[in-house]
Amino acid sequence: MQTHVLGFPRMGASRELKFALERHWRGELSAQGLVDIGRELTVRHWEIQREAGLSLVAVGDFSFYDHVLDTAAMLGLLPGRFADEPRPLFPETYFAMARGDAEKNLPPLDMTKWFDTNYHYLAPEITPGMTPRLARQAVIEDARLAVSLGHRPKAVLLGPLTFLSLCRAEDGADRFELLPGIMAVYREILQQLAPLCPVIQIDEPILCTEMATAAKAYFKPASVMLRAAAEGAKLLLATYFGGLGENLDLALESGFDILHLDATRAGHELSGVADRLLGDMSLSLGLVSGRNIWKTDLARAVATARDMARKLGEDRLLIGTGCSLLHCPVDLERERALAPDVRRTMSFAVQKCREVAVIAEAAEGWDHAETLAKNAADLAAGRDNPLACDPAVRRRLEGVTPAMLSRQSPFAERKKAQQARLNLPLLPTTTIGSFPQTAAIRAARLALRRGEMDQAGYRAAMQEAIADAVARQEALSLDVLVHGEPERNDMVEYFGQMLGGFCFTENGWVQSYGSRCVKPPVIFGDVSRPAPMTVDWIGHAQSLTQKPVKGMLTGPVTILNWSFVREDIPRAEVCRQIALAVRDEVADLERAGTPIIQIDEAAFREGLPLGRADQEAYLTWAVECFRLTASGVSDATQIHTHMCYSEFGTIIRWIAAMDADVISIECSRSKMELLSAFGEFEYPNDIGPGIYDIHSPRVPGVEEMAGLLRKAMAVIPAERLWVNPDCGLKTRDWPETMASLANVVAAAKMLRAEI
Ligand code: GLN
Ligand code: ZN
Question: What is the mean pLDDT of the chain?
């Protein structure tokens, strides 16, 4: 059985790529220096795969920024504003497309989420009249290098249909008109790769989604062309992040030599596929998850591999990871501080490579009894960890009643009670929560971590930042104030550090986009809240002003979606545990007199599964968890929620079902278009559509914001509109923040006068 991983993390175990990129962008590292570091990492990652015993090494999965951008560069599809620039494609134009060119005022490509992961890709732009050409050959060069180093390379290419589906078609372009031109470039590449690579992997995760009719129609002819071009190599069709569902026939009839299934997500499709695999098509079984940090249950994986080998024959079976390991941290060996009982249940990218090899070897009859026994013991230890099962948490969960999921009265009545208490003007103004994390704030946090500042000193520094934020908001005459979140490094990590059932890695970084990495918290045990987490900070802010201060919490769905989550109990159950913990915080805030509580659900949509069938189930429990968190308060306590940029169209009824009194959403970049979903649905509660883009330092003018507000008022009655920025302001500086917020307040006053 051949063995492989679909891709390896690019950053390096010490985030070498991140630091090299940032040095390059600051002008401290030459292009050649950057390329050298990239090559070093690539070569090291091949070595890791070979040492693990994998029969193929992934080539072309490395990227200096993003693999979708790489594909656009390979195909020579540069938007006009970059194509006209007389500079080399790599690295100059490449990074300009990724990050924009401030000097020439060229905006970057739009960044958006890669399927249901927290990785962001750059959406290539397609305009009429573009002509694809082979413009960058990095994958071919890498394949040659790998061969010269004695590896058996498996080239990895993003497939044409997924690529085209992810592009933004602009100025009336028809993306599929580009297909013939693109296919000609793919043909050229495959012809060069085939003599170098025994296997070539074509990634088409779009097959795991509901594909557009045209994409479906073009899939077969495109596959036939790819197959013909790759003479001499085996073509592997890689699908991942879900099952194939109704696209299964398409995949089976594609003419590819090997079909890869993400068995960690599409286990239910396995036996059906094995029965229907046509001709001599082989099956690549993705048995090791690329989406978590946990050890694979080796005994189970080996049993599945054996079962499939019996059906298909060993020579028609490959063993691999479910998807690329891009979404995993690199090496568990570097974790020194984790509790041993938790650590022994974990496996990062390096370890997962070895798991793949062991599964195949054991299925072929090698004696891995010792390894399998140790694996079973490790997994059992994880389950038996007393912290994994907290009887008090389990009892509370069983005691959740339907009444706990609903507010006392319908929205209309709550609104009256809240208005009587808050006495807010029409079009009330507020912000989303965070204010600039100044150098002083960051320095205090660093000093605390280094032991150079004690808790009392840190507390005083944070209280000072809160007082400053409150004074500024009063000066701006905002209506609902916030404390500014100076004490939070990150909206999920902050809460995770105070909740039971969480732990943190030292080096568990995962690429989010470009050079940006995140270190998600780990939920390994039942979640509980030993003590209040925010009450003191919010209370301090409220003590400084007569205006209402909005308490600020992160919601259960967002905490879940931005963490690595245990898999021994359902995600919905973990989420309910978090919901109960945050519900306690809501109750404590209310008891302390907080009149308004915002429960952020920035990542609510991120957990949406790719398959329609699974979406309804997710939305049902996600909404329920939000309601469980929010519903314990009296009518007169106002619950807000906030969501960042998302397409609300298909999920609007679920957003409404959350029944928050006020929702703020990111809206300015879409020029209020996102609001139309709320209008059409006749969304019943209050809404604050963001009227200024917080992603850039630009200060929008009063008229501009008033214009957006007028647009909003055409869709939502003024009585239900709030006025606020798109999102939190922690990445901004104070001067631009003050100027922008002054204009926000002025725009609201202008509109009030017009009504
Ligand atoms: N309250 C958070 C903030 O203002 C919300 C952040 C977010 O939506 N991502 O920073
Ligand atoms: Zn946001």
Answer: 96
The per-residue pLDDT for 342 is: 96
Three-state SS across 346-406? ECCHHHHHHHHHHHHHHHCCCCCHHHHHHHHHHHHHHHHCCCCCCHHHHHHHHCCCHHHHC
List the binding residues: 15-18, 113, 118, 432-434, 485, 516-517, 562, 600, 606, 642, 644, 666, 727
* 139: region left, alpha or beta (phi > 0 left; psi from -120 to 50 alpha): alpha
**Which ligand has its closest atom nearest to the C-alpha of 646?**
2
Q: Write the pLDDT tens digit of every residue in 685-695.
A: 999 999 998 98
Task: Report the 3 state secondary structure along 470-530.
Answer: HHHHHHHCCCCECCECCCCCCCCHHHHCCCEEEECCCCCCEEEECCEEECCCEEEEEEECC
CB 304 within 8 A of CB 264: no
ipTM of the complex: 0.99
Beta strands 522-528 and 258-262, pairing class: unpaired
Q: Would the CB of 728 count as within 6 Å of ligand 1? A: yes
Q: At 286, which helix (H) or strand (E)? A: strand 282-288
Give 3-state DSSP helix, strand, coil % of the chain, rounded to 5. Answer: 50, 15, 35
Cα–Cα distance, 51 to 354 (Å, whole number) = 8
Q: What is the pLDDT of residue 611?
A: 85
β partners of residue 3: 319
Q: How far is the CA of 557 from the centre of ligand 2 (A)?
A: 14
pLDDT score at 251: 97
Half-sphere exposure of 470 (CA within 13 A, CB side): 21
Confidence bin at 407 (pLDDT 50/70/90)? very high
Which ligand 1 atom sits nearest the alpha carbon of residue 730? Answer: 10
Taking each helix axis from N to C end, the angle separating 455-476 and 535-543, rounded to the nearest 10 degrees, works out to 50
Distances (CA, A) of 585 to 482, 534, 542: 17, 8, 17
Phi-psi region of 440 (alpha: psi -120 to 50; beta: other; left: phi over 0): alpha
Distance CA 387, CA 375 (A): 20
Ligand 1 atom index nearest CA of 433: 4
Q: What is the DSSP annotation of 210-256?
A: ---HHHHHHHHHHHHHHHHHTTTSEEEEE--SS--GGGHHHHHTS--
**DSSP-based three-state secondary structure for 748:** helix
Q: What is the pLDDT of residues 564-586, one digit of tens each?
A: 999 999 999 999 999 999 999 99
- Report the pLDDT averaged over residues 595-616: 93
**Calpha distance 264→244 (Å, rounded):** 13
CA of 252 from ligand 1 middle (Å) equals: 44
Residues paired with 337 in a beta bridge: none
Judge whether residue 84 has pLDDT over 90: no
User: Can you say how many angstroms the Cα of residue 315 is from the centroid of all Cα atoms in its chain?
Assistant: 37
Residue 645 has pLDDT above 80, yes or no: no
**Rounded CA gap, 503 and 494, in Å?**
12
Question: Which residue, chain included where needed, has tokens 């193929």?
Answer: 56
Which residue, judged by its Cα, is nearest atom 8 of ligand 1? 602
Q: What is the pLDDT of residues 165-218, one digit of tens each?
A: 999 999 999 999 999 999 999 999 999 999 999 999 999 999 999 999 999 999
Give the burial class of 692: count Cβ atoms within 10 A of its Cβ; 0-12 exposed, 13-18 middle, 19 or more buried: buried
pLDDT class for 697, splitting at 50, 70, 90? Answer: confident
Task: Work out the average pLDDT over 88-93.
Answer: 94
Cα–Cα distance for residue pair 227/202, rounded to 1 Å: 11
Taking the C-alpha atoms of residue 359 and residue 369, their distance in angstroms, rounded to an integer, is 11
Among candidate residues 159, 179, 175, the one with its CA nearest the CA of residue 167? 175
User: Measuring CA to CA, how many Å separate 297 from each of 135, 228, 372, 376, 468?
Assistant: 44, 39, 9, 7, 52
Q: Which two tokens stand for residue 706?
A: 């008033």
Which atom from ligand 1 is nearest to the alpha carbon of 643? 8
